[in-house]
Each structure stands twice: as C-alpha cells, then as structure tokens.
User: What shape does this take?
Amino acid sequence: MRVVMTDRDVMERVGSLLERAVIAIEPDEEWYKTAFAVTVRGLAAVRLMVKTRPALGAFRQAQIDAALHDWGTSRVRWDYEGIACAAGGCAREAVTQGLCKSHYNRWYKANRRGSSAAFQPRPLSRADVLQEPQSHSITPDCGVSWLAGLLEGEGSFWRAFSRGHAYPVVKLEMCSKDVVERAAALIGVTTVREQKPRDPAWSATHIAQVSGAAAATWMQRLRPLMGERRRSAIDLALDDYYPERLPVAPAHCVVPGCEGPPRGRGLCHKHYMSWSRDRAKGRVPRVKPLRSN
Ligand SMILES: [Zn+2]
Ligand SMILES: [Zn+2]
Ligand SMILES: [Zn+2]
Assistant: This one.
C-alpha cells in the first residue's frame, strides 16, 4: 500500500499515523515537483487494508478483495505485533504460536515431559488477520474526518466571481460515483453531476459542489483538519467573502464549535492568541479569523 503526494506536511502526517518513514521522490516526467511517499508492506499492509476497507468505496474495496484473495493461505510464520499472549492473565506481547516467550517455553517443556500446561498455544490464522474490525460508535466527527481526508486528495477550494462578488466554492470530482454520492449526502448537496471525459477512452467523473454560505461553513469546519496548501486556499476564498456578507459582528467566536465571545477578528481571546502566535512564527495559522489580512 503506497500513498504519494506533493504536500510534505500532509505526507508527514500520514507517515506518523502509519509509523512509516516519508521518502522524497525527485521530480521526473511523471512528477514535476518533489513528491513524498509512504509505503506499507506485508502483514502491516494487510492489517491496514482490513481496517480501512469498511470506510472505502466500492472500487477500493474490490481492489482490496483482489489483493487479499490468495493472501496468507500458505503462510506459517505470523507477526504477533500488538497481540497479547494467549495464556490467561499474561499481559506480554505474543511472539511464537500466540504465546509470549516465557509461556511458549513452559508449554514446550511441559509437552516434552508428556504433561500438559494450563494454557494452549493460539496460533494466528489467516482468518484472524482478515477478520473485519468491530465497528466503533459513529459520531458526526467521523464523517467530517472522512470528508477532510477525501477532499485533501480529491477536492478543491477556491473563490468564484459573480457580478463583482467573490464567493467560496468547495468541489469534489472523482470517478467513483458511490464515494461522491456519500460525500454529497454528508455535505448536504442533492445533485451529483456527471462530467463526460474529453477523451472517450477515459472514464466519466462525478462532481459534488457547494458554494456561497454553505461552502463558507464547510471551509471553516474542515480547515483545522486540512494540510497547509488547502488551508491557504480556504483563507483566500473566505477573506474575499466575509467582509461583504457579514456586516455585523458575529454572536460568538467564528471557530466552529467555539462559543466564546468575539474579541478581535471574530475570534475569542484564546483563538485570537493562537492565531497571532502562529502568524508570528510564520506558520499557516491553525485558526481562521474573519479576516486574515
Ligand atoms: Zn505469556
Ligand atoms: Zn470514528
Ligand atoms: Zn474561540
């Protein structure tokens, strides 16, 4: 399993989540900018596929099913990373046959003496690894996180102009219709548009798009989760929009979910301080004020 992107900050986040190194790929014909890649192989890749499969669209699920179809059928050596020893009450990590080193030795010696241990090995099997994870309770944040990840890869944030007014637009365009439809339902968009390809050999894409006030709300909500490049695009779109549409001060801090009273730039004291600290350090601020210029 491999992820490649030109956004270094996004890939560093992927690398730390997956506990893998980020490798820089120098530009060539395919990539005109330096790209960054994170690769997960072997058993860890299988575990990742099994874990993420329920959240993916039909196309990716079919890819995973094909990749795992014959996987592990003749495997005898398993990696017990993160799996506890099968002996009751033992908290150590399993190493061999589902047992920790000391329990495995005790079991092995007991077996040789012809007696039996109070515990048995519990070797991992293919079915254990391919077992779908138990679903956790889904909160609205799960959907927003899923959407942020999707838009980081396939979305665009920009400002459009109409009769001299700028307004923000959030757009998702990709081939997988089911994924676009799921995103559209989350965003609250009722129509998914189909875009015929320029070249008939390519496949059609599907588009979900939201603009104006609804786009501004989504931009505010998604902004803290996005990488630097997306955050800058969001700031550009919102800066042109808010001065025209918000003649009066907001009732509370403009950071989504914050109820603090606004002090400066539509932010409460805490968020204003965070914004100005980031600016002073030359970072793209994590918090988006009403106006950043
Ligand atoms: Zn043990
Ligand atoms: Zn969740
Ligand atoms: Zn606040």
